[in-house]
Amino acid sequence: MTYADAVRTAWAPLRPDEGIHGIVRYATLAANSHNTQPWRFTLSPASIVIAPDVSRRCPAVDPDDHHLYVSLGCAAENLTHAAAASGLRSTLRIEADAVVADLERATAQVSALFAAIPNRQSTRAAYDGRPVSNDLLRSLEQAGTGEGVAVLLVTDRQQMQRISDYVVEGNTMQMRDPKFMEELKAWMRFNEGEAVATMDGLFSGASGNPPLPRWLARPLLPFVFTERRENDKYRASIESSAGLAVFVAEHDDWAHWVEVGRACQRFALQATALGLKYAFVNQPVEIPSLRRQLAAYLGLGRRLPDIVVRFGAGPELPRSLRRPVAQVIA
User: Fold this and answer.
1) What whole-number distance in Å separates Cα of residue 80 and Cα of residue 92?
2) What angle do CA 273, 305, 209 make, to 5 degrees?
3) What is the per-residue DSSP string for 251-290?
4) 2-16: string of b/e by CB count within 10 Å (b at 16+)?
5) Mind giving me the DSSP string for 192-211?
6) Which among 156, 166, 116 has a CA at the least distance from the CA of 290?
7) pTM value?
8) Distance separating alpha carbons of residues 211 and 130, to the nearest angstrom
9) Which CA distances in Å does 82 have to 13, 113, 190?
10) What whole-number distance in Å separates Cα of residue 328 and Cα of residue 56?
11) Gap between the Cα atoms of 145 and 168, Å rounded
C-alpha cells in the first residue's frame, strides 16, 4: 500500500455500509498525542467503550497520562458526531478508566462538525497572520467550552508573545532532556514507507519537512533538529497565527481531561468548518513548573491550563495516518 492509498483509506468519507466500524474509524481520526493513537474500542450492540491503550503511553512527555485521556476525549467527541450521522444517539459516561458511549436509535443528524472530521488536521506550518473576526471567535469559543471546561482565546499580540516565551522555555527544557528526545525520536516517521509500515507516529511530511530515508535522517537529526532552530520556528509560528486558545478544566483529574479533549476536538472541528487551521503548542502544560507559571500569568487561580493551541488561516499539509479499525478493536 502506498502512502496516498493509506490516506485515502483512513480519511475516506463515512459510508453507510461501514456500520459501527465506520463510527470507530471516524473516532480514530481525532487529534491525539504524538499520533500514538492510545485507544482501544470494545463494541457491543448498545455501546462502544473507549479505553486507554497503555502500551502507547508517552511517559517522558506525559507522565501523568494527561494527554492520553485528552486523546480519548477527542476520539469520543468524533464518535458522537459520526454516530449521530449514522442514526444513533450517543450518551457518554465515565466507567472505571474508560469512556462509554451508550447508543440508541434516533433520526440521523449530519452536522457541520461531522462534515469537518475528514478535513481536520493539526497543521504545523506558518499561517498568514490575518486576524479572525469577532463572529468567528465567538463560534470558536462556544465550540471549545464544555462541561467543567473553559477556553481562553488570546488575540492580543503582547499576550501571545508572553505565552510564546513559555512555549520556547518549555521546548528548551524538553530538548535538553535525553528521555524526552528518545521518546520523540521513537515516534518519528521519516518517510512515507515508515509511516505506512506503522500507520502511526509523527510523519515528517505532515510537519512540512522533506521525507528522507532513516539511514540518512537519523544521523542528520542533531544538526537540523536543534534547540535554536525549533525555538525560532515556534516563535515564528505563533507570530503568524491569529490567536491562541488555552483550554482549562475545573479540576485536574482524568475525567476532566476527557472533557478537555472533547472541547478541544469540537474547537478543532469548528475551526475546520470555518476554513481555519490549528496546531498544538503544548510545551508549557507538559512541564509542571511552567504549567503553574502559565496558570498564574493567565489568572486561573487554582485551575491549571490543560491544552494550548494556535489557530489561523494556513496551508494544507500531507495527512498523518491511522491504524486500521481491526487493530484498535479489543
Assistant:
1) 8
2) 55
3) S-SHHHHHHHHHHHHHHHHHHHHTT-EEEE--HHHHSHHH
4) ebeebbeebbeebee
5) HHHHHHHS-SEEGGGGTPPP
6) 166
7) 0.97
8) 30
9) 11, 9, 32
10) 12
11) 27
- The CB density around residue 224, as the number of other CB atoms within 10 Å, is 11
Q: What is the C-alpha separation between 42 and 219, in angstroms, rounded?
A: 41
Q: Give residue 103's identity as a one-letter amino acid code.
A: L
Q: In tens digits, what is the pLDDT along the chain, a chain of 330 residues? A: 999 999 999 999 999 999 999 999 999 999 999 999 999 999 998 999 999 999 999 999 999 999 999 999 999 999 999 999 999 999 999 998 999 999 999 999 999 999 999 999 999 999 999 999 999 999 999 999 999 999 999 999 999 999 999 999 999 999 999 999 999 999 999 999 999 999 999 999 998 888 888 877 788 788 889 999 999 999 999 999 999 999 999 999 999 999 999 999 999 999 999 999 999 999 999 999 999 999 999 999 999 999 999 999 999 999 999 999 999 999
Q: Are strands 88-95 and 98-105 parallel, antiparallel or unpaired?
A: antiparallel
In 176-253, which residue ranges form alpha helices assigned H by DSSP? 178-186, 192-198, 214-224, 227-239
What is the CA angle 224-227-232, rounded to 5? 90
Q: Return the percent helix, strand and coil in the chain, to nearest 5.
A: 50, 20, 30
112, three cell numbers = 457541520
Question: And the C-alpha cell for 69?
Answer: 485521556
- Which amino acid does the sequence have at 266? R
